[in-house]
Amino acid sequence: MRRRGSGIVGVIVLVWLVIGVVAAVQRDYFKESDANCATAGTIALTIVSGPLNYAGVNPRVDDCNVRIPQPSE
After folding, report:
1. What is the DSSP letter of 63?
2. Statement: the pTM of the whole predicted model exceeds 0.90
């Protein structure tokens, strides 16, 4: 049986993420045709930040240099 509080937590998380999506849409992040790692990271951080976007948080990812391990010789 599920506890009563777990449903409330789920609703809060869902509302948090929806507010983040609204902030990303307002910043026109989905209209850019340049799809790269930095753009995707900025969109993801904006969504996860949720209502903090309206408190002055402006998360941005400027560079995505990922070091991929190379096989040994």
Report:
1. -
2. no
Q: In the prediction, which pLDDT does 23 show? A: 94
- Contacts of residue 59, defined as CB under 8 A and 6 or more positions apart, other chains included, come to 42, 45, 46, 49
**Residue written as tokens 């993801």?**
44
For residue 52, the 8-state DSSP code is G
Per residue in 17-61, pLDDT (tens digit) is 999 999 999 998 888 677 788 888 899 999 999 999 999 988 888
**Percent helix, strand and coil across the chain, each rounded to 5?**
60, 0, 40
- CB–CB of 30/46 below 8 Å? no
CA distances from 19 to 7, 24, 47, 49, 51 (A): 19, 9, 7, 9, 6
**In 10 A of CB 24, how many CB atoms?**
19
